[in-house]
Design a protein that fits this description.
40% strand; single chain; 4 helices; nine-stranded antiparallel sheet; mainly beta; five-stranded antiparallel sheet
Length: 287
């Protein structure tokens, strides 16, 4: 009976004309990944949507996508030597939205693990040439490896790279080799995810909830397929897990959770984890 219920639910997803279907080509079980987008808020500068679907092995997932008009908003990197909540970074920057930034060292003060540069000032030096970087100026943006950096004013290094010029990137070797730098191997399981991307029209902030019955999280391979189907041109994975946070209009949109074991997780204390960096969208009205 249980298997029959699952099959009926899957057929309902696939038959609903409001759902899109993605073929997962990089996972062991190649099936269709159906999802639905629901508009939660539509403002002058951005659109906030909820994405609900079923993963390749029949587990539910929920994600939240904020698409910000590049002509009406600007991107900023926020940093604090004393870790802050994303909501604090957003409010202090007079931003309209923010997400978790790059990775940090597993120590008390949580300094950035990788290269960070803000308005030509180096916050953390580059030590790894094999990790991709968001790099941008006032008008232009790219995601490149350090030896290919195009715009040197603002740099945030993280990874892995998920999408480049519309093409899926699936080399996660750097993060497999250095999995000891993280609380868990980000390449080996389903996790909550934080993703930044863009195309010619929008900046994209995408967070995927995980560690609950309602949302199991996604593999990185599934994230690659999802952002390609959502019409990102380029995309990069940022710090996820319990750090994964999306703030919009001073509200926490997603549901960060800490993993205690394979079967148990709890909400993050006071809703958000304090982190050293964040990406912020600022309205042109405040520039």
């Amino acid at each position: 009976m249980h298997n029959s219920i699952i099959l009926i639910n899957i057929l309902h997803f696939i038959s609903n004309e409001n759902y899109s279907k993605i073929e997962i080509s990089n996972c062991e079980n190649k099936t269709m990944l159906p999802y639905q987008k629901t508009i939660l808020k539509k403002k002058q500068h951005y659109i906030l949507e909820k994405i609900s679907g079923i993963s390749d092995d029949n587990l539910p997932f929920e994600a939240f996508l904020l698409s910000s008009d590049r002509k009406k908003s600007k991107l900023k990197i926020a940093h604090s030597s004393v870790p802050q909540k994303v909501s604090k970074f957003v409010s202090s920057s007079k931003g309209i939205a923010g997400i978790t930034g790059g990775f940090y060292e597993l120590s008390k003060n949580k300094p950035p693990l990788d290269w960070v540069k803000i308005e030509n000032e180096t916050v953390q030096k580059m030590t790894k040439e094999s990790r991709p970087c968001i790099n941008f100026s006032k008008e232009r943006i790219s995601i490149d490896f350090p030896n290919e950096i195009k715009y040197k004013e603002n740099i945030l290094q993280a990874g892995p790279l998920l999408l480049k010029d519309g093409i899926i990137q699936s080399d996660f070797t750097e993060f497999v080799i250095n999995s000891h730098e993280f609380e868990s191997d980000i390449t080996a399981d389903r996790h909550p995810r934080t993703i930044f991307g863009f195309n010619d029209k929008y900046y994209f902030f995408l967070v995927v909830d995980g560690r609950t019955r309602k949302s199991s999280g996604l593999y990185l391979e599934e994230c690659c397929e999802l952002v390609q189907h959502l019409e990102f041109t380029s995309a990069i994975n940022l710090d996820g897990g319990a750090s994964s946070t999306l703030i919009e209009d001073n509200h926490l949109i997603n549901h960060p959770r800490i993993k205690l074991s394979d079967k148990l997780s709890i909400p993050v204390y006071r809703s958000e984890r304090k982190i050293p960096t964040a990406l912020i969208i600022v309205s042109d009205n405040f520039l």
